[in-house]
Amino acid sequence: MVGPGSSTPGADGRYHAYFAEGYTGHNFEEFISILSPSSSQTVNVTFLFADGRTMLEPIGIAANIKAVLLVNEQVGDGEAVAASLDAPDPFVAERPMYFNFAGTITGGHDAFGAQSLADTFYFAEGTTIGGFSEYLTVMNPNPAPITIDITYYFSDGGTPSTITRTINRSRLRSAPRRMAASCSLPSGPCISMPWA
Description:
Layout: E1 14-19, E2 28-35, E3 41-49, E4 54-61, E5 67-70, H1 71-75, E6 81-101, E7 105-112, E8 120-123, E9 135-139, E10 146-152, E11 161-167, E12 171-174, E13 181-184, E14 191-195
Antiparallel strand pairs: 1-6, 2-5, 2-6, 3-4, 3-6, 6-7, 8-13, 9-12, 9-14, 10-11, 10-13
């Protein structure tokens, strides 16, 4: 969805939310919106940076009132960052991001927080033709490193291409040359999000 006030479909509250994609660079604004439908509570937001750093930010949330966190203010400018949210009671979270990419493309996108980790993801869509910038973002919120295989499939039916990466407790962004992809993790669960 594009523009201020974007929203994603509602969902039942859960105790965890994961966002692999996040960026606070020039002309990007990232937000995390949180709602606790049943009780006031503290939601622990752990930011995972591309260089392996982490930062814990406890956020007090009143019942039935949306809290909005401007990630740029929390982590600073120019950061590639993922986020893991945890709380003792159910909550829902989304991550709107607005941008003016390269000074020519304005827009935004909104992601509902993944409620669990998984070891395999499939993405049917993707393109790297002129005018598109396609990324695959993966996070590992676990303390131990994981090894992932990213397999790219081509529209001409050519032989799939696989790359292997090891991710510590951090965030990884891959910018493929062509894309329809699967992401599988033989050594542990993570969360993966496409972004175009």
